[in-house]
Write a structure and sequence with these properties.
The complex is a heterodimer of chains A (about 120) and B (about 110). Chain A is mostly beta strands. Chain A is built from no helices and eleven strands. The model of chain B has no long low-confidence stretch (mean pLDDT about 95). Classes of the chains: A mainly beta (about 120), B mainly beta (about 110).
C-alpha cells in the first residue's frame, strides 16, 4: 500500500542544521510532487515547501525561504528537507505528503506520513 | 497568519448536520481547487475532500463540500461522535506561490 515514512527529526540547538528524509513506497514516486507540512505544538497546519515530480520546481513558505531546502532523489524514492539556521519557532512535527494528482504540483496532498518531530532548543 | 479563515469551532448533536465555512480570496479559493483535511488528535491529517467536492475512496458520503466564489464549505450530515476532531480547508495561492491552510475548526458533538 502507499506509504510515506519520515525520519531525521530530533532536538537541535538554535542556529544549527538538520536534514529530514521521507521514503515513499507503494507508488511511482517519480510521478508525484511532494510536500512538507509542519504543525507546531497546539497549532494548526502550516505548509512548508513543495517540489514538483521531476524536481524542476520548488516553492517555499516565506517563513522558511532562504533557510530550508527541499530536494528529492527519484532513484531512491526519497524526499528531503534541509533545515538550516533553525529557530525556536521551527519546533514542530514535520509531515511529508504526496500530491493528490500525478504530475501536478498545486492541487494539494492526499497521502501523509506519520511525521517526525523537530525540537529547537538550547 | 493563515489567509483562509475558518470558524474556530462548530457543534451539533448526534445525527444533526454541521457546516464549516472557509473564506479566502481571489488568489486562492477564487482561482484554485479546495481540499479538506480531517485530523484526529496526535495523528497525521487525512484527506477528506479534494478538488472542491470529490471524496477519496473510503470517506463516507456523510461528508460533502462545495465552493462558490472565494468561499468553500464542508458539511457533515448525520453527525457521529467520531466526527469530533479538527478540520482544515486548503488551497494553492497564486499570489503567495504556495499552499495555504485554513485556521482550522474543531467540531464538538454535544
Amino acid at each position: 500500500q502507499v506509504q510515506l515514512v519520515e525520519s531525521g527529526g530530533g532536538v537541535v540547538q538554535p542556529g544549527r542544521s538538520l536534514r529530514l528524509s521521507c521514503a515513499g513506497t507503494g507508488f511511482t514516486f517519480s510521478n508525484y510532487a511532494m510536500y512538507w507540512v509542519r504543525q507546531a505544538p497546539g497549532k494548526g497546519l502550516e505548509w512548508v515547501a513543495v517540489i514538483s515530480y521531476d524536481g524542476s520546481n520548488k516553492y517555499y513558505a516565506d517563513s522558511v525561504k532562504g533557510r530550508f531546502t527541499i530536494s528529492r532523489d527519484n532513484s531512491k524514492n526519497t524526499l528531503y528537507l534541509q533545515l538550516n539556521s533553525l529557530r525556536a519557532e521551527d519546533t514542530a512535527v514535520y509531515y511529508c505528503a504526496r500530491a493528490v494528482l500525478e504530475m501536478a504540483t498545486i492541487f494539494g496532498m492526499d497521502v501523509w506520513g506519520k511525521g517526525t518531530t523537530v525540537t529547537v532548543s538550547s | 497568519q493563515s489567509v483562509l479563515t475558518q470558524p474556530p469551532s462548530a457543534s451539533g448533536t448526534p445525527g444533526q448536520r454541521v457546516t464549516i465555512s472557509c473564506s479566502g480570496s481571489s488568489s486562492n479559493i477564487g482561482s484554485n481547487t479546495v481540499n479538506w483535511y480531517q485530523q484526529l488528535p496526535a495523528t497525521a491529517p487525512k484527506l477528506l475532500i479534494y478538488t472542491n467536492n470529490q471524496r477519496p475512496s473510503g470517506v463516507p458520503d456523510r461528508f460533502s463540500a462545495s465552493k462558490s466564489g472565494t468561499s468553500a464549505s464542508l458539511a457533515i450530515s448525520g453527525l457521529q461522535s467520531e466526527d469530533e476532531v479538527d478540520y482544515y480547508c486548503a488551497a494553492w495561492d497564486d499570489s503567495l506561490n504556495g499552499y495555504v491552510f485554513g485556521t482550522g475548526t474543531k467540531v464538538t458533538v454535544l
